[in-house]
Structures are given as C-alpha cells and as structure tokens.
Amino acid sequence: MRRLFNILLYGFLAICITASVGAGLVYFLLSASVPDYDEDFTVAGLGGPVDILRDSSAVPHISAASAADVYFAIGFVHAQDRLGQLLRARRKAEASWPSDEILDLEPAVSDALASYAAGVNAWLELVSEGGRGRGSPELLIADERSIAAWTPGDSLRIARSFLNGLRPGSAREGMPSISGAIIPADRLRVPELFATDPEQRLDAWAIDGDRTATGTPILAADISGSLSLPSEWYLADLQFSTGPAIGATIPGVPFVIVGRNARVAWAFRSFPVPDEEAPRGPSPVRAAGFLTMLELFARSADAIDAIGVAADMLPKGMEALAIDRETVARWPRAEAVRASSFRDIRLAELEARQSIFSTEGAIGVQRDTVSSVARTLLPLMAKELWFVQSRDSIEGTDADSLRRELLDRLASWNGEMDRYSPEPLLFWTWVRALQQRILKDEFPTAEQLWTRPNPNFLYAVLSDRRGSAIWCDIRLSSPRETCEEQVRVALDDALGWLVDRYGRDPSTWTWGEEHRLDMQWSPISSRGLLTDLLSLQAPISGDPYTLFLTSFGVEEDRPFLVSAGSNFQAVMSISEAAGSYYISPTGQSGHPLSRFYDNLFPSWIQGEYLAMSTDLSLARGGASGISRLTPATSDNPRMSEGQSE
C-alpha cells in the first residue's frame, strides 16, 4: 500500500512539474513578443534619428526631422504593436484584390507609402533575428514559415478594403445577398426590408462657433465597426517639421484618417451607395485618391483649404467635414440627400435642445443612449393594448396582470437603453417577436430577414405606409390578421420567452443581461477556454440606433449579444480653452500579455475621454516609454541596441 502511495505521489508531482515547466515555457515564448517601449534600435532606411515617446496610454508621439522618417516610424510602431493584425489585414485585402494596378501616385504619397513599408520591414527584420517570439503571439502557431516583406501596394490594398467596408453588406463581393428574395405577389414591396449594414460606418457633425462656449467650432466624429481585440484603430501623434497630426490611424496605412493638426480638424460621414462600382468595389485609383487627400489634410492651413482638397478627391458615398478656429466647412457643400435615420432624428433633437455647446456637451451627445426607435415604434405597437385581453399563453402566470405591469412600465419609459433597466429588454424582445410573426410565413428559410430587428420596415408596416399593413396578414391562414392582432400575440410571445429565461419578476430583468459586450481576441474565431480568457465581456447600454451605437449579434440563443458598435469617438476643437478628446475601447497593443492590451476599456465603458494633445511636455508626464531609432551606417550596422533608459 505504501509503495502504491509513493508511486501515485511521485506521478502527481511529475505531472505538476511537467505542467509548470510547460506553462513557464509557453509564458516565456509569449512574453518574448511584448515590446519594450524603452528599447532603442539602430535600423536601416532612416535619414536621421527618430524619437518615439509613448504617453501614459502608450499612444506614440513620433518626432523626426523629415516626413519620410515620421512615416518610417509609424510603420515601425504599427508592426511593433500590431504585427498580427497587419498581416491579417494584408491577407484579407489580398484575397479580395490579388493584385493592384501600378499607379502613378502623387510623389508625397508614394514616398510616404515607401517609407512606411521600410518601417514595417525594419521591425520584421528584427523579429527574424530571433528572441522576439515571432513578433506576435498568434504567429507562434501560424502555418506561414516566413513573412513576406511589406510593400506600398499592401497599404493601397488595405485602404481599398477600408473603403469597401463602408458599402452595404450585399454590395460587397462575396457577401450573401437577400435583395433577391422573392416577395409574394400579394405583398407590397417595402425597400427597407432588404437594407443591409456596412462593416464600418463613419459619422460626424459640427457646431458653429456662435453656438459654442468658446466661440470656436466643435467637430464630433464617431466610427462604428467591429469591437474586437485589438481595436481596428490605432492612435498616433505624427510630429512633422511642418506641424503635428494626431488621431486615428489604420494599421497598414500611414495617414491619420480622423483627427487634427494644429490648425484644422477633419472627419467623415459615410452613407451607402449600393451599386457603385459593383461588383468589384472601390478602384485602386479611388483608394489612391483617398490616401492623397489624407496626406494633404495633415498639411492643411485651414478648413477651406482641406475641403478644397476633398472636393477633388473625396470618394463617392462619403462626406467630409473640417473645422478651424473660425469656420465649419463640408463637402459636398449641400448635405447629401438621404432619408433621415433614427440616429439622425435623435441627433437633431439634442442639437435643437441645446443652444450653446461645450466639448463636454458634445461628448454627452456622443454617449447618448436614448433610442428614437423605441420612441417611434412603441406608440404604434402599444396604442390598443390597454383595451384588449391577453391570449394567456404564458404558462403558469397571470398573463393579464404581468402584461399590464409591463405596459405600465413602458408607458412611463423615455426610451433610455440603460443596461440595468428591464424596459429595453422587453421592448426589443417584443420587436423581434413581432418581426418574426410578420415575416416568417413569407420567408420561411430566410432567417436573417425575420430574426434581425428591422425598425424601418416595421415602421412602414405599423403606420400602413401606402398599404404596407398587408404584411401583417398570415398568408397561410384563412382569416385576415391585422397588425393589432400580431402586435398583441407578439407581446405574449416575448413575455413567454422572458419568463422562461428570467422568471416571473420583471424587476429582476435587465437589458445588460442579454445586451452584453463580447469583445474577442481577433486571431481566434472559435469559442473556447483561451478565447474566454482573452476576451472582454460586460453589460452595455445602447442599441444599434442610439448615438452610442451597439449592434446586435447573430446567435439565435443570444440575439442581443454585442460584437460591433462605436469603436472610436473624438470631440475636437482648435481652441486652447476647449481642447480635443478621444476614446477607444481597447489599448494600443495587440498582445494579451501587454498592460496596454485593454487598459482603455474601463474608460470607454464609463465614457471617460482622454485628451488629444500634441504637447510633448504633457505626453512626458507619466510616459510609458521613450525610445530612439537611429540610422544604420557602415560603422554602425543595423541591430537592436537592447538598451533601456
């Protein structure tokens, strides 16, 4: 017996030691690719020394004597922090456009792309020397044995992919189209039924100086898209000899897409142009024009100068806004003609309510989570329900009593999509059940039509626009059902679903229980223990139609799970008194072991914006690192110095 005990004990100890050694080895390999922001490097391709100051949030402030060296350095830090993301973006762009035309780019843009590529390749060369864990943790298990050098064409394709992502889903090549679904002959065609969302959306609005506390204009920018780790956006301050440019960049592209210099701030609005350039999407020429416009924006002297550039180079489907100390300018000069969205309606309400804006007031508007969808649809849905009986389909409950309690709650609700309130959960569950009731008989196999709430379609039907109420009739039944009947039955469907899921006490229901953020580490697509360890999850306010946008998911069992939404917001003013601010959901690093992997997440959840400052003296306060890139010479060959300050 004693012998058996010793065998088991030693076996257990051997397993523990093996597991500990294995875990230590894995940790060592993974931690080797965490960049040291105080490390200096000697690299080939530079014209002069470059200083990279990382502020307390690890945003790099890059200073160099020439623009070429600044663009080299932004390529270097993009690769240093987001190498895996860079390579994934390149693979995705190459899959869509295997080759690009050879373009005659503007010299400044051509030189910038070449310098950027040299910076990326300088980091790749350092990684290839070993000791850096292949530069990114996911590359340790990647099947590509060698990494091809970065080229200017890679950046051009990524810019093209970005522009393509602004188009509606069915207009993008390879995306399934639902617009070809056959509408029964006895149903009125409602165009909103087949509307699809783009991968990314750009929004912006500006306030003239006569309506601001400081007398200088304010520009608010909002970008929505995938909420993943790392973020799709990378913040940077490019300190050119002609002046700084700070804001949001895309890993793979060297220019600030939304941001400001010392004199001008710029942002964009996007709107769908479904048939433009179909089926191939934006051309290389259009992508090159977009990059040229961004390069010129960084050097613009005033808002009129910037918009003059946009007039010649702005891609279709986009609107440019720019401000300086006195002027708000836009192109096209007349706002694009399009149907007002629910978000536009809410923005107009908030703008009309406030006569004078501060930057704090603009931030409050950006973070607003009151839904115009709820304010618009709820009166149409509930107008008759106080006067009819329930069909008592909620097993084990007094359906009439529960329904009355919840309708009373909705009657006094202002449409605030608060994560701790039950009303948003009831409303959207009801809307989803109603849409399924209306559409499932016409499209029994097209689940994406009747499982994803479409408020624009429902508004047309419930308001009987041009006879659209005919959609409420179930085609397979003999009686003709009305919208009032469908709304009542859908409410009972929703209550049954909620009671089964959360019990009979509505005071315990919360929107955040279903409307949860699930921000996953993007290199891993499948769910598992590792994904759960590296992801960020939290209850979150808002909906797809609030100004602070949080989209719904596609999982049948978790229909309101959030994996996309507002992933960069900025409020900018060319005023020392007002200042400029930004917020992003994650950190600068794409490495899960870096302390800057998710350090911005608490601030983003709470709506606490960070200062967008080009003042290097402020950046040095609490700096997370200072490194220098030195040009390699024959006497000083290219190598990592491995020094720390």
UniProtKB/TrEMBL annotation:
Q: Which residues cross the membrane?
A: 7-30
InterPro entries associated with the record: Ntn_hydrolases_N, Pen/GL7ACA/AHL_acylase, Penicillin_amidase_dom1, S45
Q: Does the keyword Transmembrane helix apply?
A: yes
Q: Which UniProt keywords apply?
A: Membrane, Plasmid, Transmembrane, Transmembrane helix
Pfam families found in the cross-reference section: Penicil_amidase
Q: What GO terms in the biological process aspect are recorded for it?
A: antibiotic biosynthetic process
Top-level taxon: Bacteria
Q: Which GO terms describe its molecular function?
A: hydrolase activity, acting on carbon-nitrogen (but not peptide) bonds, in linear amides
Give the protein family. Belongs to the peptidase S45 family.
This protein's name: Penicillin amidase
Phylogenetic placement of the source organism: Bacteria, Pseudomonadati, Pseudomonadota, Alphaproteobacteria, Rhodobacterales
